[in-house]
Amino acid sequence: MWDISVAGHISTGQDSLSAAAREINEEVSVNLGYNVDIKDFRYMFSLF
After folding, report:
1. Rounded to whole angstroms, what are the CA distances from 8 to 12, 19, 33?
2. What is the number of other CB atoms lying within 10 angstroms of the CB of residue 20?
3. Whole-number Å distance between alpha carbons of 35 and 48
4. What is the total count of domains within the chain?
5. How far apart, in whole angstroms, are the C-alpha atoms of residue 24 and residue 26?
């Protein structure tokens, strides 16, 4: 069983969708390109 997690921070002025795509690329070297839609992500939780 594989568990791949990606976590990170949102940079100043960056929206959550582009931050998620950037973090995925940084953590697991997968480039989602510019065709990412919010429906492709699943919201887990927020600390604030």
Report:
1. 13, 8, 18
2. 20
3. 28
4. 1
5. 5
Residue 1 domain flag = no
Angle at 10 between CA 5 and CA 16, to 5 degrees: 80
Task: Give per-residue pLDDT as tens, 1-48.
Answer: 666 777 888 889 988 878 887 888 888 887 776 666 666 677 777 776
What separation in angstroms does the CA of 28 have from each of 12, 13, 21, 34? 23, 24, 11, 17
Q: What pLDDT shows up at residue 40?
A: 66
pLDDT at 3: 67
